[in-house]
Amino acid sequence: MRVNHTRERLARGETVLGCSIQAYRSPEIARTFAAAGFDYVFIDMEHGSFNLETVHDMIAAANSAGITPIVRVAELLYSLVARLLDAGAQGIILPRVEDPRLLEEALSWLRFPPQGKRGYGVNATMVDYEARTFPEIIEHLNRNTLAVVQFETTTAIERADELLSVKGMDIAMVGPADLSISLGIPGQLDHPLLISTVERLIEKCKRHGVVPGIQTRSVAMAKAWVERGMRFVGAGAEHGLLLEKAREAVSLLRAAARPAP
Which of 90, 124, 232, 249 shows its CA 20 to 30 Å from the CA of 8? Predict the structure, then answer.
């Protein structure tokens, strides 16, 4: 059965790096991210327009390539979480979380009893066709599923201690874009208020034994947050990386093609 290598690295105290897929409907991107050395791929079903079948193919490609597939659902619904986990996702990102009671219920969907309420629909493809008992499968999948909770509003930040106390959360992931809007500084992602707010959350995560994480919009932002103590760090998205590299290539080639003075 597949091991969640991102979870293992976090358990060893390491920092893990990922990148999201938001725009391009290709499973090959996950394989590319794996070849580049990313630890996880963040498949976005909140802001991406992907259907379940497309995401299933992305998950399968990621698992085959050895990169951890983590999917953000569009809303807190059991039917979304359960089907993605059954498709092979090794982690779920829960967006726009503010209510500890709703969070407790949503987290229960990610694991089988007695740890949670996930329904048992395991088929042979989910365990690589290995002959395993129910208890073996339940223990393995419970242990290898990552629960990622987004903190992206001032309300969530104000309730951080209460939310971080809810059992079952592995990672608290900041959404800096929405948080900047909630703080009244939309798009100012390097504003001192945003930085200090997030740094306070990092300290609270440490006290509660939860991994602090963030999904950034660029490699430069990701690097800055790694240096500030984030351990689950997303470095932009596939469309941004492609555009950035394409611009760099064109700039270099245009300079080379200029006629000599």
Answer: 124
Could you tell me the two tokens for 88?
Answer: 């092979």
CATH number where 212 lies: 3.20.20.60
Where in the sequence is the domain holding 251, given as residue range(s)? 5-257
Three-state secondary structure string covering the chain: CCCCHHHHHHHCCCCEEEEEECCCCCCHHHHHHHHHCCCEEEEECCCCCCCHHHHHHHHHHHHHHCCEEEEECCCCCHHHHHHHHHCCCCEEEECCCCCHHHHHHHHHCCCCCCCCCCCCCCCHHHHCCCCCCHHHHHHHHHHCCEEEEEECCHHHHHCHHHHHCCCCCCEEEECHHHHHHHCCCCCCCCCHHHHHHHHHHHHHHHHHCCEEEEEECCHHHHHHHHHCCCCEEEEEEHHHHHHHHHHHHHHHHHHHHCCCC
- Count of domains in the chain? 1
